[in-house]
Amino acid sequence: MKNFTFAIPTVVHFGEGQIKRLGAEIAARARNVLVVYGGGSVRRNGVFDAAIAQLKEQGIPWTELPGVEPNPRVATVREGIRLCREKGLDGVLALGGGSAIDCAKGVAAGFFYDGDPWDLSAKKLTPERALPIFTVLTMAATGSEMDDIAVISNPETNEKESFSGPCCYPAVSILDPTYTYTLPASQTAAGTADIMSHTFENYFSPIETNFLADSLAEAILRSCIRYGPKAIEVPNDYEARANLMWNAAWAINGFLKVGKPVAWSVHRMEHELSAFYDITHGVGLAILTPNWMRYVLSEKTRDRFARYGAAVWGLDASRPAGELAEAAIQRTRDFFSSLGLPAALSELGIGPEHFREMARKARTSGFDKTFVPLSEEDIVNIYRMSL
Ligand code: NZQ
Ligand code: ZN
How many CA within 13 A on the CB side of residue 28? Predict the structure, then answer.
């Protein structure tokens, strides 16, 4: 195991009714906040009212930034920074899924950045300061509620890029599983695929040295397989929603990657898809992942896939490794299909026109240290397999 430092400063209040802690937590850190949310789901399901009641109780004034897009845009981040500066706001409260939270992070870090906030993503800068970030999560997927990453889109240039830094961890996150009851089945499915993909990205590493992390990764995958379908079938199944929510936080908060070399492949390919076509992140991942698995399966990697098949899918470990690996990959595809997720880009109306450009752009963020290093040609091939 390699040396590492592990620190997550986010205070998590998990469970039904935990919103009652929000007001005091904010009051301890900010006096006047920007409330960031998306297209209106939080207005319809009561989350907005519950959060605002907390602000009122503490006498904390607020300004709203509504309308954050799924795949949040840098223009919205700019608007949030303008509001914070103009009104002297000193905290950012996100209500929603990864998009609202990432936008809030963009605003919080961009507030102290002396330039266009797009630089943070485009130049992969590590911001040193950010306003305190508070989140009330309404969708189990990205893990943004407990990580320091923000993914921002720039539709003018067809780019979707992330930045991160310790100052971007939320100070406090409220994780109330009942807030995800209103999530449409399609988003529950996409969120489940995203959680699983984060886990895969960490699990499929060139060196297996962290047995604890790998075993937790397998447990997270089993939990998604168990509870994703349940949450779709019975949207207000508390245990299903609670397990998905906690899985999401742990799939990407850093625990799964410590002590071993980890570089992500499928996310970089997917971010190009959503940059060009503005598709749902988890849908793109569900299409690409089994094809990426097939593409990188070789004599060298098959034992890893075989372990995955036995530990996660309960396949008979005495079968030959190659057979086990292929069966595990097929089970992955079948599972995503069972959630109602598309299996091909053509189902989204996406053709091969931009594959070369997307592969070139994805490749600029480095594929040399991934589980299996991929060339531009390899990436194009995986996109083609996904048509
Ligand atoms: O906009 P509203 O009206 O709120 O509706 C949202 C949106 O349409 C809806 N929704 C969310 N919670 C709901 C709900 N509808 C009803 N009831 C609820 N309880 O669901 C739709 C999707 O929401 P969004 O926040 O966009 O989804 P998600 O959480 O999947 O976030 C996606 C973004 O996060 C990025 C993705 O690339 C994408 O831009 N990611 C962020 C990461 C991070 N910060 O660590 C890592 C991820 O890999 C990912 O890249
Ligand atoms: Zn993701």
Answer: 9
pLDDT of residue 176: 98
Q: Which residue has the tokens 């189990």?
A: 140
> 58: exposed, middle or buried (C-beta count within 10 Å: 0-12, 13-18, 19+)?
middle
Q: How far away, in angstroms, is 349 Cα from ligand 1 center? A: 22
Rounded to two decimals, what is the model's pTM?
A: 0.98
Ligand 1 pocket member 41 (CB < 6 A)? yes
Beta-carbon count within 10 A of 202 CB? 24
Q: Give the position, in ligand 1's atom list, of the atom nearest the Cα of 274.
A: 37
**Is the separation of the CB atoms in 101 and 94 below 8 Å?**
yes
Give the angle subtended at the CA of 330 by the CAs of 362 and 214, to the nearest 5°: 70
Of 116-120, 208-212, 232-236, give the lowest mean pLDDT range.
208-212
For residues 151 and 271, the answer to whether their CB atoms sit within 8 Å is yes
| Ligand with an atom nearest the CA of residue 160 | 1
Residue 67 CA neighbour count, 13 Å, CB half: 8
| pLDDT tens column, 156-165 | 999 999 999 9
Phi, psi dihedrals of residue 286, rounded to the nearest 5°: -65, -35
Residue bearing the CA closest to ligand 1, atom 14: 183
Nearest to 112 by CA among 92, 128, 89: 128
Would the CB of 246 count as within 6 Å of ligand 1? no
Q: Does residue 39 have its Cβ closer than 6 Å to ligand 1?
A: yes
Secondary structure class of 60 (helix, strand, coil)? coil
Structure tokens at 184: 């449409």
Whole-angstrom Cα distance, residue 70 to residue 141? 13
Nearest to 132 by CA among 206, 46, 28, 1: 28
Cα separations in angstroms, 387 against 191, 275, 346: 22, 17, 5
The residue whose two tokens read 């207000």 is: 236
* Ligand 1 pocket: which of 175, 281, 283, 285 to mutate (most atoms within 8 A of CB): 281
Contact predicate 132/168, CB 8 Å: no
From 95, 121, 151, give the residue whose CB has the most ligand 1 atoms within 8 Å, as the site to mutate: 151
